[in-house]
Write a structure and sequence with these properties.
The chain is of the alpha+beta class. The protein has helices at residues 3-12, 51-62, 66-86, 131-138, and strands at residues 14-18, 21-25, 90-92, 96-103, 106-109, 116-119, 122-129. The protein has three domains: 1-47, no CATH class; 48-88; 89-139, HU Protein, Chain A, CATH 4.10.520.10.
Length: 139
């Protein structure tokens, strides 16, 4: 999408306020506005998908109970985290590779006091997107 197209969408958009949530409604090609649950050519630009949304999608696709879908999503996340804790990589075809990397020790400054602080080396999680994911997001 070009910058011009994005700006046109942004100018035609409305913001709908719910308690502690802001939903952005964008004009679709038919000239109407998308709904919170409706499917449109443009996604809602505010609020990211969370674990409960993924569990809801699993529940819908598999036709299982919501509790089973939530346990399946939680189990998958726990499996990825436990393998990363062990130092192993987790590769999911079409999605990418979860891995860990050692970050070197460094000196930093406390922003409040300006004092120099030694930050120890630590293992941090990294994600490398698969080519299929990059291509899907690009289009």
């Amino acid at each position: 999408m070009s910058n011009k197209g994005f700006l046109e969408i942004w100018q035609k958009s409305l913001i709908y306020q719910q308690p502690s949530n802001y939903w952005l409604y964008c004009r679709d090609f038919a000239g109407g506005y998308t709904t919170r649950t409706g499917v449109s050519n443009y996604q809602l630009l505010i609020n990211a998908m969370n674990k409960q949304d993924i569990a809801e999608r699993v529940h819908t696709v598999l036709g299982t109970t919501k509790a089973d879908a939530e346990r399946a999503v939680e189990s998958m996340i726990d499996s990825i985290v436990s393998e990363l804790k062990k130092g192993n990589d987790v590769s999911i075809a079409g999605l990418g590779i979860f891995k860990t990397k050692m970050r070197a020790a460094r000196q930093a400054r406390n922003p409040r006091t300006g004092a120099t602080v030694q930050v120890p080396s630590m293992r941090v999680p990294k994600f490398q997107a698969a080519k299929a994911l990059k291509e899907a997001v690009k289009s």
